[in-house]
Inverse folding.
């Protein structure tokens, strides 16, 4: 019985680890950047920076509110739960400081749009990545 419980716990933890690793931050393959730090990604997605460290414009894309990837991204990278992010953006918009990233419904759509322009950045399920984009950060 102990062996079965231990095996079940291990399988569950492995599944959670794989889920956590499924999320990546991407930019266009046309962008010269090869890597971003958590702080750089956070600043872009919080509207605190409108440029990449190379000086090029940075425009983030967000996934739909119901997305598990979105929740995970907010908690792991921005260190805020979705409800706190909603309040953050309400405050930023009210003050005229910044606007939230444009929301897209799926990882596939994020990949398609990010691939088109070097200024775009997004987070997606790692399985959606193709040669038109490159992974610059993995939470």
């Amino acid at each position: 019985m102990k062996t079965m419980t231990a095996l079940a716990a291990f399988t569950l933890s492995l599944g959670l680890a794989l889920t956590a690793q499924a999320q990546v931050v991407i930019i266009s393959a046309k962008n010269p950047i090869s890597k971003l730090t958590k702080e750089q990604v956070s600043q872009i997605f919080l509207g605190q920076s409108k440029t990449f460290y190379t000086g090029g414009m940075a425009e983030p894309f967000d996934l739909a509110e119901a997305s598990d990837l979105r929740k995970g991204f907010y908690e792991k990278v921005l260190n805020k739960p979705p409800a706190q992010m909603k309040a953050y953006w309400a405050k930023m918009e009210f003050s005229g400081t910044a606007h939230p990233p444009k929301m897209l419904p799926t990882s596939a759509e994020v990949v398609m749009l990010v691939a088109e322009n070097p200024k775009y950045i997004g987070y997606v399920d790692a399985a959606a990545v193709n040669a038109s984009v490159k992974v610059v950060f993995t939470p």
